[in-house]
UniProtKB/TrEMBL annotation, chains A, B:
Record organism: Actinoplanes auranticolor
The protein, known as: L-fuconate dehydratase
Enzyme class: lyase
Cofactors (names): Mg(2+)
Domain named Mandelate racemase/muconate lactonizing enzyme C-terminal: residues: 198-294
Record EC number: 4.2.1.68
PROSITE patterns, sorted: MR_MLE_2
Protein keywords: Lyase, Magnesium, Metal-binding
BP terms from Gene Ontology: amino acid catabolic process; carbohydrate catabolic process
Amino acid sequence: MTERISSVDTFDIRFPTSRHRDGSDAMNPFPDYSAAYLVLRSTAGAEGHGFVFTVGRGTEIEVAAIRSLAPMVVGQPVDALVADPGALARQLIGDSQIRWLGPEKGVVHMAAGALVNAVWDLAARRAGRPLWSLLAALTPEQIVAQIDWRYLRDALTEDEALTILRDAAPGKAERERTLLDEGYPAYTTTPGWLGYDDEKLARLCRQAVSDGYRLIKLKVGADLGDDVRRLAIARRAVGPDVGIAVDANQVWGVPDAIGWMRELAPFDPYWIEEPTSPDDVLGHAAIRSALAPIRIATGEHMHNAVMFKQLLQAGAADVVQIDACRVGGVNENLAILLLAAKFGVPVCPHAGGVGLCELVQHLAMFDFVAVSGTAESRAIEYVDHLHEHFTAPVRIANGRYVAPRTAGMSAQMLPATLAAYRYPDGPRWAGADPSDGGQR
Amino acid sequence: MTERISSVDTFDIRFPTSRHRDGSDAMNPFPDYSAAYLVLRSTAGAEGHGFVFTVGRGTEIEVAAIRSLAPMVVGQPVDALVADPGALARQLIGDSQIRWLGPEKGVVHMAAGALVNAVWDLAARRAGRPLWSLLAALTPEQIVAQIDWRYLRDALTEDEALTILRDAAPGKAERERTLLDEGYPAYTTTPGWLGYDDEKLARLCRQAVSDGYRLIKLKVGADLGDDVRRLAIARRAVGPDVGIAVDANQVWGVPDAIGWMRELAPFDPYWIEEPTSPDDVLGHAAIRSALAPIRIATGEHMHNAVMFKQLLQAGAADVVQIDACRVGGVNENLAILLLAAKFGVPVCPHAGGVGLCELVQHLAMFDFVAVSGTAESRAIEYVDHLHEHFTAPVRIANGRYVAPRTAGMSAQMLPATLAAYRYPDGPRWAGADPSDGGQR
């Protein structure tokens, strides 16, 4: 009997993080970190896990989208599926009726990405390898075949991608050993949430330095006076040699971003992240040009590779922040990593939330081993929330991600978590005010 | 008692249009024109109708999104709501948790747009005026106050918008009379669907000319040989003086678009529409530069005003094609009309589908009366499908839209239609193969 995908189970999982304002920023004052979570199961009992990270209300829409796409996965033969997840990605993203709701953006695109990621999780489990290692073992031709090139060739052709991957081949084995020995650089956003008071900010900044971080990040953009005060506190706490990135979470228009950041420039921000709408490539280019040499970082809300392509073509960013759950899954992120390599822009993945660290570390580590070949000027965001809910949580040592050795994409939540935090019927939520955890 | 919104009823309405390949193009071979439809009802029995146009599968996701947003509308006092729909638009689009699923794009943004449009429908009904006339009667200050300017000011400020509107004021009354007397230019896509055979194409082209159209549109991009043959047939049928626009529906990458269109250039295409990804502003600019003087048209899939802003800033399009259901409703389309006016680019709205003609005519007519002040080089798309399902269907005479006089936004479907075409339980669908109508 051919092994096939027999079911896609979905879960609406929400954590009441807004109670302590963990994750609070200028645009997200009260997030409840959540996930539209799914499990693929095969007729032989194999599993693949995936999810879309969300921040509370609306998770039910994302779950509905996953359910609508699931029939395209159920029944597929597992051997073929894991040998070529790109075929499924094209089918999910290219569905001629559902693509009207994107195309290649928002709810339906993220749902496709979660299913594609779950197939990669399944593929890596079957191969008995962590995903970064499975990807690094693919040939340049196999990687290139996993990407939809339709809209990318004016910036990067298949041949150029092959050259990038072949050029990186010689040092792969050595970098893999380095990665396993030393891990991959992290930076931390833990100190910088907007809802934390000054004392907590200073304490967490000092803690970050003593934990070995060389870069921290603060949320800005709600009140200029507060930002100046908080940056001064942070700079005092970390000293002159640790980088302080700042993150406005899209709160400004282009002229506001330029004006506000000029006031923060004396504190030597390492980058300004999401200074304006994530859709505004030309706006980012204008801000970058006005604020140089302050670096511009963006990407966590850029919805597909076409947007990243333009960001790079326009010279609009110094740092590309991929997200594991925003685009159409691993395959589209492979394209973005190759685009960034072509343009020589470092990738510093967005993480935090719930499970984003777990997923995206695999992509950064694959980039180090097989694409850019370097971790210089690169770091994965780290936030110390909610890792305890995963079967293979990330591990951090001396300000670095320890390379995962567990087979898969590190996407699996604990069964107890899926039971307790299921919304609205899990014990954590049943009977609670639906808007609790849940504040606006 | 204050009159309040008491309920939002939602409907998944689908028409089996794929049976005759009405609406077939290079990316949508078998669309089933559909709508995620909603009715606002007030405690006093007033109604506002709105919908998101969709093409079949996935309509249930859009309905789920409308249901998730509906609690923000229910309970609102009607007087305040209709006096300032922009306040609701900001609330729906800015919800700090739900915006993670966009932001300002895709399923959740279109759902917000449908609710906002329904409020405008309600406002126009209460005022006893068609929407175009209600909008045209607003002062420049009232129009400007309806727009979210956060991300637009680097291209268009509130003051510049006021100047555009004030400059258009003197001729308003005369243009309103002209509009009522003569209507607004239309062009027709009825002949050009990819699934029609050559005989039907030629016949419908001749019919279009005899019906008074000066511009028709053909779908292209599936097969170059077919496109050359079909364009030759169409050119022979309409003669040298009627424009033939062509529409690739995003099927090409940038180099493909340039190469393919060079082969079609001898047929003097009036514009090439959606030559590549709707997200690819810089790609459109490159295509435009390579293909000049062929016009570039796009917009039906551009997901928000920030994208239109960049399209105009980059000089990437000759024709801006607004869509009534893609962005965040009337309010965001007001911003796009003003941006187009600032940059001097004509707006030729996307329509067709189901109900898009009914809705968007109001925006084009408002543009004529109160913003651009001209219908020169402008036309609203017209397709003769499914108008019979509306209580106030569009009327076309001599290749022009007749200005609607019925109060509202012309959004209301017949009760019999809502009953019959409701998916999957309406009599048209119950018991049918769910993929019928419904082919891929």
